[in-house]
Amino acid sequence: MSRLRAAALAVGCAAAALTLTATTAHAAPGDIQTVCGSQLTPSGWVDVQWWNDFSCGSTFSPNTKKIEQVDGLPIGTTLNVCASALPPAGWVQLSEFYSSSCRYSVSPSFNNNSWQIKRVS
Q1: pLDDT per residue over 76-120, tens digit each?
Q2: N or C: at which end does the chain have fewer Cβ atoms within 10 angstroms?
Q3: Rounded to an integer, what is the distance from CA 84 to the centroid of its chain?
């Protein structure tokens, strides 16, 4: 049974990776995708939420994230994002703060884990 479960998980992760690759290429500014936390955040995207989901593995640490496409958003736009990925080119950090939605570490704390960013170019 565990081999079947492992095979199903591998197929599911591969399908998720292919879906992310296919959908991020055609994403519009502001589009949101859910991906496994083991996948790198693509260029032009930011992490906006983390949580644990068994579809991305059977750990108790945050392993799933919501990412948002920010390329193409107007200059002057501000967003609150997780500090788990650097702001994209053309965006600057305005402030940092703690958000329970951005607990991306296996060792949760109340340290700052989020940024407010602004598009400047």
Answers
A1: 999 999 999 999 999 999 999 999 999 988 777 899 999 999 999
A2: N
A3: 8
